[in-house]
Design goal:
Elements: H1 10-23, H2 28-33, H3 37-52, H4 58-72, H5 75-88, H6 91-99, H7 108-122, H8 129-137, H9 142-164, H10 171-176, H11 179-184, H12 192-195
Helix pairs in contact: 3-9, 4-5, 4-6, 4-7, 4-9, 5-6, 7-8, 7-9
Length: 196
């Protein structure tokens, strides 16, 4: 990354331990967010709040993040959430979302969410009532549409910080993701394993 890790403190140790507990290793991005553990905690709480009370499924959230990350060119979240989506569906479907193509295994809702996420990232000022109507036609209610949009914007902010400050995807992500997902992520920063 382009900035140094923060000095050791109780707060940074807690952030690092949280990363280790959830991932089995300390993620590279954690060293950026450890400069402001309070903000990192706020992001984690907001993510839990957004996902916890939504009727969108974990698989649908994974579709949103994969489409967002691919549209942004964020290899870090693409690898992490591509692995999640592959586990919730299958590796070819996850790869298809990352490549921006439809997958037979994805529902109409999931395909609509993928297209919406891409447009929110790349053309937020060009969305139309017709775009929202396509989401409704796929079975999404207005609350779900609002939640999906909030989640994409939230993830976009998180990814932008990581990308701008040079967080390199962890080699563990590339090593543990299905081959189809790794092959589909041909954008963004290479993982430590790919760069070696």
């Amino acid at each position: 990354m382009f900035i140094s890790a923060p000095p050791d403190s109780e707060a940074t140790a807690r952030v690092y331990q949280s990363s280790f507990d959830s991932q089995g290793f300390i993620m590279n991005l954690t060293r950026i967010w450890a400069w402001r553990p309070d903000v990192f905690d706020g992001f984690a709480a907001l993510r839990a709040q957004l996902m916890g009370s939504s009727s969108l499924s974990k698989r649908e959230f994974a579709v949103l993040v994969c489409a967002m990350a691919a549209a942004l060119g964020d290899s870090y979240c693409a690898l992490a959430w591509g692995k999640t989506l592959a586990g919730a569906s299958d590796p070819p479907s996850a790869a298809a979302v990352l490549q921006g193509v439809n997958a037979a295994d994805l529902s109409a809702r999931e395909q609509a969410l993928s297209a919406w996420a891409r447009k929110v990232v790349t053309q937020p000022n060009e969305t139309t009532a017709a775009d929202v109507a396509r989401l409704r036609d796929a079975g999404l209610g207005d609350k779900e549409i609002a939640e999906a949009t909030l989640f994409v914007a939230f993830r976009l902010a998180f990814s932008t910080v990581n990308d701008a400050l040079g967080a390199q995807p962890d080699w563990q992500l590339a090593a543990s993701a299905p081959a189809e997902v790794v092959a589909a992520v041909r954008f963004g920063r290479p993982s430590a394993a790919q760069a070696a």
